[in-house]
Amino acid sequence: MNKKSIFNIAGFIMLLVLAACGGSESASTSATGALDTGKVYKWKMVTTWPANFPIFQEGAQKFADDVRVMSNGRLDVQVFAGGELVPALQVFDAVSQGSVEMGHGSPYYWAGKVPEAQFFSSVPFGMTARGMNAWLYGGGGLKLWREIYRPFNLIPFPMGNTGIQMGGWFNKKIESVADIEGLRMRIPGLGGKVFKRAGGNPVLMSGGEIYTALERGTIDATEWVGPFHDLRLGLNRAAKYYYYPGWHEPGTEFELMVNLTAWNELPPDLQKIIEVTARAVSEWIYGEMEFHNSEALQQLQQQKNVEVLEFPADVLAALKITAAETLQEEAAANAKFKRVYEAYQAFSQGYGDWSRMSEQSYQAFR
Ligand code: CA
After folding, report:
1. Which of 29, 83, 254, 299 is the most buried (most CB within 10 A)?
2. How far, in Å, is the centroid of ligand 1 from the Cα of 361?
3. What is the pLDDT of residues 320-357, one digit of tens each?
4. Domain match, 238 and 211 both
5. How many domains in the chain?
6. 341: buried, middle or exposed (CB in 10 Å: 19+, 13-18, 0-12)?
């Protein structure tokens, strides 16, 4: 679109606003708004994902591309993968301090700084993507999340969900809780704490190190994401058994975080474009995950001859009790954590009944 037509659109919008408002006070406000519509905002987004990481980094790039089209180039976001501009685990600080305007990641990466943020990602035996959606948008979860991020000068938007992850890759079968004893498994965050409490030996390790560690026997087991990303990492060549479900990450939510000062400087139409695009990309990421995971699972079973096994019910039941103890212990030690934990629990208990009578009951007979 050329400059003349941009000018015409700006003039047209101004006329519309003037016609709608009438009064001189609103007219001067809208005149300022109309002037703002000509300004181009050049922003940067940093992510926690490796460059070209399928679906996750792609989603961040899609957000930037869609926003550029919808804003007619007025909001131009340049996207950087983890490590390109700032290290992956410094995304929160970089956006908080305003050295960049936006970030994409998952709130549990900031557990060291904001432990209660983990509830906005995923917690062991917590809610799935459906439940998270209901809690965040309908049940007050997003409002609480924004309140938690406010002191860091950040405003978060949900932007993606992995869906239920897989339980992980093991080189020995898990037939009882006793088989977890001493098991060296790459499993981060709260899931790792639960695993440790259940007798396991959680190991911290980045995605790039997992394959070699498992293949060489430095670790006995690992979790990663789901069939699609696990197959790409070649984990089927390093372990015999692939277990489900991912009790430790039942629906990991991603976030778009925006520096609040930068956000407040945007005209309302660009703010709305960000909000609506984040929600659309959220849906895109979740849909892509479900589609690619189902395809990759078939490939793993039919072409790669992977033995896909369900964790025994008594192992899951024991881990669930251990998970509740772990969360209660964290809550007892941290008032902020406790507050979000209680809000999360209150919603998820009520939602649980509905979920059992709708989705679960129906799925059991499909
Ligand atoms: Ca994972």
Report:
1. 254
2. 27
3. 999 999 999 999 999 999 999 999 999 999 999 999 99
4. yes
5. 2
6. buried
